[in-house]
Amino acid sequence: MTAPVAPKTVTALADGEWHRLHPASPLLRGGLVFIAVLGFIIANLRERIVDMFVVGFVPEIGDEVEERHGDWRDDWANDPVGTIVLSGQLGWALLAVAVVVIGVVLGFWLSWRMHTFRITNESVEVRSGILFRSHRSARLDRVQGVNLSRPLFARLFGTAKLEVSVAGQSGNVQLSYLGSALADGLRADILRLASGARADRASSSAGDGMPRVPNAPTASVATSATDVAGPTDAASATDAPGVADAAAATGPAGTTVPAASAHGPVSAVIGRRVDEFLAPELDPTLAPPESVVHLSLGRVVASTLLGGTMISILVFVGIIIAGIAMGQEWVLFSFVPAVIGLVGYLWSRITKSLRYSIAGTPDGVRIGYGLLSTANQTIPPGRVHAVAVTQWILWRPFGWWTIKVNLAGQSISASGESAQRTIVLPVGSADDVRRVLALLLPEAIDAESAAIGAGLTGRGPGDGFTATPRRAAWLHPFSWRRIGWAAESGVVLFRTGALSRSLVLMPLARMQSVAIARGPVARMLDVASIRVHTVMGPVMVYLPVVPTAEARALFERLSADAVTLAAADQTHHWGAPTAASEPLVASAVTPTAAESAEAPVGTPAPAPAPEPEAEPGPGAPRG
Fold first, then answer.
1. What's the rounded Cα separation, in Å, for the pair 530 and 547?
2. Of 522, 519, 461, 449, which is closest to residue 491 (Cα–Cα)?
3. Average pLDDT estimate for 276-280
């Protein structure tokens, strides 16, 4: 992928030393719940609280208050505040409230004080906990992506949450929260280190804009004293005193934001927050404008309303209307909550697709979205394990498609924000699909090739795809003409679907194993199915029907090509300097049933093995 030179970072957090998070982190992580609970209690007891202070300071009207609430006297369940006041325990109650508040504040402070992190040349480490300490480490050679999210309330504080995605379930490391500018700079540092590049360390802190603690521990020395007094505060790059001049401060996407000290005018801080809200998620200097894919608001809304969720809403509304007309009021309690939930899901789909952009940057594919609460993720080169391009039947007249990917560390059962990260193109045209495929698999496939067009809308043989025999109609009567496969440049393409068209692309360097299955009916028809195994995710690399002889030949060729390509793959160290070597030219798999199962010819140049992903399944080819 072509892009301008990587920008310089404005942080010194990737120096191997321990640092702390933003001071507002405890409030953003758990303090909001405490404030909400306290507000709920005050809102429901505001009348009694007023009476409490009136009786405490104006005893003459105590009889009137007692008469008003006399029936609840000594009734702790109905009127705890009144019982406290009329029992003369007001002082003890205020003392208890003060103790609780002080305890919560102290707990928040200790939580922030004991939560530290450091970035070394090998890993991202996080230590946390007050009574029960935990120490998590994520190896940089297993980094699958770096995600930044800025919830609405966090954006008011100028903070962002950084999450490092690694291979393996529940292995991600979160830094919640960092200053918004520091989070952008730290993401660039982590991706630079994960790429295999190594930058020189600054010998002093004069130019990096971060305060230093004398005798702070280095990457090789970590004493217990650092738990209390060692780490450096990683506050906001724009709000913390003394760092206002650090590269003029950078906005959410690297855009320049006016710098001002925390001791400066309040208007300057407010203006900076407004600039951060209006700044684009993707810095225009990171990618050429022609490589950026945007979504129009009309297409987002229309595609969402034409989805399967809208059909479910209409069906449920029809059931509710019919039930009310027939006097069956129980349908209100059964289907109204479901309709409310589906409407909320539609709204979230629309809002999460607003301000969407995807483009190639020096460190990988950058995807950003969101209006008030924003998020963006960076997928480094070589981290995409499978790509699925699908088209719902109601989208067919408009030529709209959606793209999902499999990434290590993202489960098929993931929900919420994790599931959103597997959708790299919510809705787009065929031209958008080609541009996104060129970003996701830049070295593996030509997005302008005829095979992509045939995979999207084609049927039958041609443009590299195989023909499915007519006998396959007994198993797939509607889609047998469309089912087929092709392979080129180390990528296998599976084309399926009639009502919902699907084109799956699988880089063979990421293949873990391949399997052939034949049921009793398939054996009678002399056909088989092929499944290529990869990491868990929403994309299933599966060809439902193929002639048996062709399936066996494909099995052998995929197994051999996967070993060869995996041994030569270097995309996981895209920033490491390498010696010049002859490029490996992988032989294309000719999709004919009569082709022999001979492995491709070629001697790959020695190269490091790809990053370890997930444990391969039985029979997985190993490089």
1. 10
2. 449
3. 68
